[in-house]
TrEMBL record:
This is Right-handed parallel beta-helix repeat-containing protein. InterPro entries: Beta_helix (IPR039448), PbH1 (IPR006626), Pectin_lyas_fold (IPR012334), Pectin_lyase_fold/virulence (IPR011050). It comes from Spirosoma agri. Residues 200-380 form the Right handed beta helix domain. Residues 1-20 form the signal peptide. Pfam families: Beta_helix.
Length: 485
């Protein structure tokens, strides 16, 4: 071999040897050190040391807390509130008990829009609390199943200057909403947007075990609000276990509307309770409409609703309306319908008992398709009358005080087989009395009027049956206790 070739080969071998000795060593694996470091969120996220503390204490205002390293977690996203991820991909998980504070996720009173942070918080954990303060929300937040969001009642105010909607369902109608509690929040809607909206707006999914309580809301400064709470049951969907209680709401259209209009002849909404609320200065205080079953409307205070105070509309079944109070100005402060088919086939009928007016209400009461209504111990002082219409048939009306300024205090309009006993019925203040009690039309047969105090206005009669109606009257008496023939 020539010397030049030997030299080249030697140099090549030398180069291989040198390169082998210069190979970059493997990085030292990260090592968990059993200690707790005090860091900011920024410092933790930028951490790339191979000595990893087993826990860290975060010091950022509103985010304070202890986070512990999860060595088995390689996928949880950084959500600021419960999970923080380092530069090297290590996950630290917040240690806490009880509800999570939304401030951990970046919600603050100085935030121009708490919507994105609140949505992130809802996705991250099942139980959230909003600390006392005033907040601004511009973007909608999507509810999900198995969640609670709460606040100290009257201590948290969310202003909605852009959208009427604070909480809404996922746009995919196949995603159910189950086991949800909204408790103690307050809203001030100042949006100038046009459209059909509601502060809590559910339109599409099936819903079970859904409660809204101890909340307040007003949209007096808004332009075109719809409702405070809207729950629409879409075709093929259901709703059950709905509770709306102890809320104080003013809404330009309806404080609370729950309706089933797209499931014809199917009672897709069941077990709905609306109780202890103060609904005021709306077009409708409360509307439950369509084929619904098991409705309880109890102990609400309804004031100044230009159309209806409480409306039960459509084909409702098993309706109980008890111990509600009405005050102020209405068209009808109580509008009731138990069987929307108009055939009176529903067994039982509405139970309406213990309800009162505060002072004299402007407006009256209409019962459409009430079935065999059980109407007792109500005290209604009003400018309008009690009207029984359509299939409000076979009902019992007992121990009520009905005082009206209309030319008829009570009229059975083509409704048969209703019995009135032990009531005080008056239209004494009417200057054009037709009849304090009237059965009207050929459908108003077998009306029974017995042992009632009938106090009539000027002119007219204490009771009458006209245009084919019939009325069996006995043992009724006037204001002085004198028998009425």
């Amino acid at each position: 071999m020539k010397h030049s070739h030997l030299l080249q080969f030697g140099l090549f071998a030398l180069a291989i040897t040198v390169l082998a000795h210069c190979k970059t060593p493997e990085p030292e694996p990260d090592r968990v050190v059993q200690r707790e470091d005090t860091l900011s969120i920024v410092s933790l996220r930028s951490l790339n040391s191979n000595q990893i503390p087993s826990s860290v204490r975060i010091t950022d205002a509103g985010h304070e807390g202890t986070f512990r390293l999860s060595e088995a977690d390689f996928s949880s996203p950084d959500n600021t509130g419960l999970v923080l991820v380092t530069f090297n991909g290590h996950r630290y998980i917040r240690e806490f008990s009880g509800p999570a504070s939304v401030t951990w996720f970046g919600v603050s009173t100085s935030d121009t829009d708490i919507g994105p942070e609140l949505e992130m918080a809802i996705k991250a954990t099942d139980n959230l609390v909003i600390p006392d303060g005033q907040y601004t929300q511009l973007t909608e937040v999507h509810l999900r199943s198995n969640m609670t969001i709460q606040a100290n009642a009257g201590k948290v105010l969310i202003t909605l200057p852009q959208s009427y909607i604070s909480f809404v369902n996922d746009p995919n109608p196949d995603i159910h909403l189950d086991h949800i509690l909204i408790d103690g929040l307050s809203w001030n809607v100042t949006s100038r947007q046009n459209g059909r909206y509601g502060t809590i707006y559910i339109d599409g999914p099936s819903v079970t075990d859904f409660t809204v309580q101890n909340c307040t809301s007003t949209d007096v400064a808004a332009k075109d609000s719809t409702n405070w709470l809207t729950l629409k049951i879409q075709a093929g969907k259901t709703a059950s276990g709905i509770v709306v209680r102890n809320n104080n709401v003013q809404a330009k259209r309806m404080a609370c509307e729950i309706f089933n209009h797209d499931n014809y002849n199917s009672y897709a909404g069941k077990t709905i309770t609306v109780s202890g609320n103060n609904f005021h200065d709306c077009h409708f205080g409360l509307s439950l409409s369509g084929p619904l079953s098991g409705l309880t409307v109890n102990n609400n205070y309804i004031k100044n609703c230009s159309l209806f105070g409480i409306e039960i509309a459509g084909a409702a079944q098993n309706v109980t309306i008890t111990n509600n109070k009405f005050e102020g100005v209405f068209d009808k402060f109580l509008e009731g319908s138990n069987d929307g088919d108009g055939n009176g086939s529903i067994v039982g009928g509405m139970v309406i008992t213990g309800n009162t007016t505060v002072g004299v209400c402007q407006g009256g009461v209409q019962l459409h398709n009430g079935g065999a209504t059980q109407f007792s111990k109500n005290v209604f002082k009003m400018t309008g009358m009690l009207e029984l219409l359509h299939s409000t048939a076979g009902g019992t009306f007992s121990e009520n005080v009905i005082e009206s300024a209309a030319n008829k205090a009570v009229i059975c309009d083509n409704t048969p087989n209703n019995t009135f006993t032990n009531n005080t019925i008056s239209n004494k203040s009417s200057t054009e009395n037709q009849a304090t009690f009237m059965a009207y039309g050929s459908g108003a047969t077998n009306t029974v009027l017995t042992n009632n105090k009938l106090i009539k206005g000027s002119g007219g009669k204490s009771y009458d049956a006209v245009l084919g109606a019939s009325c069996r009257a006995s043992m009724n008496y006037d204001e002085a206790g004198n028998p009425i023939p």
